[in-house]
Amino acid sequence: xxxxxxxxxxxxxxxxxxxxxxxxxxxxxxxxxxxxxxxxxxxxxxxxxxxxxxxxxxxxxxxxxxxxxxxxxxxxxxxxxxxxxxxxxxxxxxxxxxxxxxxxxxxxxxxx
Amino acid sequence: xxxxxxxxxxxxxxxxxxxxxxxxxxxxxxxxxxxxxxxxxxxxxxxxxxxxxxxxxxxxxxxxxxxxxxxxxxxxxxxxxxxxxxxxxxxxxxxxxxxxxxxxxxxxxxxx
Lengths: 112, 112
Known about the structure:
The structure holds two protein chains of two kinds.
Chain A: E1 3-7, E2 10-13, E3 19-26, E4 32-38, E5 44-52, E6 55-58, E7 65-70, E8 73-78, E9 87-94, E10 102-103, E11 107-111
Parallel strand pairs in A: 2-11
Antiparallel strand pairs in A: 1-3, 3-8, 4-5, 4-9, 5-6, 7-8, 9-10, 9-11
Chain B: E1 4-5, E2 10-14, E3 19-25, E4 30-38, E5 45-51, E6 56-59, E7 62-67, E8 72-77, E9 86-94, E10 100-102, E11 106-111
Parallel strand pairs in B: 2-11
Antiparallel strand pairs in B: 1-3, 3-8, 4-5, 4-9, 6-7, 7-8, 9-10, 9-11
């Protein structure tokens, strides 16, 4: 069966520090991969998606970037974190179009 | 511009009764709709989906209804159980992008 792993579960970082969140999927090949952010009391906002290695699409202008160095690995990064980057970050994978996306357990990021 | 809206932030229901969660959308190009359930500090879990070519999909206690003319979908949970208490998100997908637009979520409380 397929599984998705996200780490770390929680992270506290100072303003201006770099960020790297990692997501890996097991048990499938060539999945669509997604990064979402959930701000407090809000729905999920799509940040990035990828349909293949090295293919990244950005949904909103922001202080973050994403990379897909391997088929089942998706990384969310920042060179210098802002206070507004705080939130709950979720990675998701999708086998193909018109199929549900499946989410990891998320990373709670707090910026001090 | 909120393309997917859940206008009820919260809903309280007695155990054994029906829970009805509502969702409205504005984009007639959406062709695939999903409901997710989310517990605090966890990623959303897929519940049920419906394609725009259908008006009803049922899976056990969960039924999703789609009214395309009204751009409205709803999730019915019968009978409701205390374990159903969580935040419920509806989501919509357009075409073959795989990108989901989420509503703000509705917190369901099922009282014993």
